[in-house]
Structure formats: structure tokens, C-alpha cells
Amino acid sequence: MNIYVSNLSFNVQDEDLKEFFAPYGEVTSAKVIVDKMTNQSRGFGFVEMSDDEASKKAIAELDQASVEGRTIRVMEAKPKEDRPARNSGGYQGNNGGGGYKKRF
Fold first, then answer.
1. 16, 20, 61, 99: which has the fewest C-beta neighbours closer than 10 Å?
2. pTM score
């Protein structure tokens, strides 16, 4: 089962996340999501456990737990849904620039 964990301290690393769930069963992967530009934690991550019963127990017991002074949220991860194409938005006016005219 894939588990979503949010409101993590920015100090939490993959190994820490794995250790939080290890007492409940075999953790097959634990990944804190990081910003691609800064390589800083984004405050959430995903844990995969091999046993669904262990996963459910971990979710029940760790949701709302305090970790490094923060109340974490733990829930079953939902599959990423296909999102509708975004409207480009923005101003689609007169194709003109900024309104500055050079005078000679």
C-alpha cells in the first residue's frame, strides 16, 4: 500500500520517514519529496509497505502524531488523476507591448 505523509518537518529525510513506519511492518520504500531547484524538502512524502494490514495500522496510529514538533497527517495515497489541460490564461489583448513609444 502507498501511504501519503504530509506536514513533515523540513529536517525529515528518507531514512527518518522509513524509521517512523518500520515498527508497523516492512517498509519497501520511503521518499521525502524535494524541490528540484533548491533540493529542500517540500514537507511531504510517500511510504510503501508490503503488508496492507500493517499499512492500515500505521496510518491509524501515526495520523495526527507529533514528529519534531509538527502534527503529521498520514493517509492512503490516492492515485494521481489525469488533470484537465490548463487554460493558458494571461492577458490576450491587443498583442501590443508595454505602451512605451520611442519618440525621435
1. 99
2. 0.75
